[in-house]
Write a structure and sequence with these properties.
Number of helices: 5
CATH architecture of the largest domain: 2-Layer Sandwich
CATH topology of the largest domain: Alpha-Beta Plaits
CATH class of the largest domain: Alpha Beta
Helix content: 10-25%
Order of helices and strands: EHEEHEEEHEEEHHE
Strand content: 25-35%
Number of domains: 2
Radius of gyration: 19 Å
Structural class: alpha+beta
Shape: globular
Amino acid sequence: MIDHSDSLSAGQRFALGVEYDGSRFHGWQVQSGVSTVQESLERALSRVASHPVRVITAGRTDTGVHASGQVVHFDSHSDRPLKAWSRGTNTLTPPGLVVTWAIPVNAGFHARFSVIGRSYRYIIFTRPMRPTFLSGKVTWDHRSLNIGQMAKAAAALVGRHDFSAYRANACQSRQPIREIRSLEVRGSGPWVWIDIEADGFLYHMVRNIAGVLMAIGSEERPVGWAREVLESRDRRAGGVTAPPHGLYLTEIRYPEEFRLPPATPACRFW
């Protein structure tokens, strides 16, 4: 049984829930000369721990991509109250980056390799004029989108498939097979939401799916095009990669034995 007490012995592994506004950072991974989520989080945690801290993430995100359900882990020999890893860290992180929870986990937990599922939400705001307050937080489309057509097209992508046509040319994954467990398209007024859950994702896979569905929703392409692109296994058969601004990493799932808190539904209000 994992000890969730408020004070912990040295040599403990911790898991953190993290949310961030991707428009404020140059992606997840540390890069020289620019602000990234990883660099900002590690700097804050290192000050709390009084020693250098390196975090392992469930999955890297690109510049402009947001997260409400990111998970990381790190190891520390420092004895700190549990709230120091969350509230204490949050006093040291820049705007747009928050630790939502912190718990001790056993050494068998790995933020990346223990994952059994991931979910993303892609948010589209449709109206003739570009947004102001929502700039950088959603993807804007000046066209009206046919949600029914998008939903029909999305159904063809559910299941275990070769998603070569939906991954970026720079994708370094050894194999393109992934299983989409659910893919829903819904909307209300000017809003359109694409919610997708899978065992894993290829580089730009969600954004490429969104790009195809938006082309179908605008009726520039027929419903059957999503399947045609899939079956081609050729990225050149697909459409434009959708912008990063509307993409949110919403949940990382792990085996129940680790007893991690549920994902924070931070982007569910739209």
